[in-house]
Amino acid sequence: MTHCVKPYPQKSTVLALAHIAFEVGNVKATLKEVINAGGNSIGEVVAAAYPDGLEAVFVYAQNPEGNIIELQSWKRIKD
Questions:
Q1: 27 and 46 Cβ atoms separated by less than 8 Å
Q2: pLDDT digits (tens, 9 = 90+) for 26-53
Q3: Is the model's pLDDT at 62 over the cut of 50?
Q4: Rounded to an integer, what distance in angstroms lies between the CA atom of residue 23 and that of residue 21?
Q5: What architecture is the 20-76 domain classified under in CATH?
Q6: Which CB contacts under 8 angstroms, 24+ apart, belong to 30-33?
Q7: Domains of the chain: which residue ranges?
Q8: How many helices (H) and strands (E) does the chain have?
Q9: Which band of pLDDT confidence, cut at 50, 70 and 90, is reported for residue 3?
Q10: Residue 32 phi/psi, 5° resolution?
């Protein structure tokens, strides 16, 4: 049996403090699934192109339990 001496905070509100990232095929479609399941978006969907020819699309969200997640997808836009 495990006993918690100090209570854990109800929710984390710091984006970079504790989150898990998932690479998905379609960020917008996956975000819609998260929202339909009772989660919510944190911020906007962002696309960023990198000098190595890759593009990333990502967004932060909260799952229905309040955990912060990052959804991301990557694709090559130039060789």
A1: no
A2: 999 999 999 999 999 999 999 999 999 9
A3: yes
A4: 7
A5: Roll (3.10)
A6: 30/71, 31/59, 31/61, 31/71
A7: 20-76
A8: 1, 4
A9: very low
A10: -60, -40
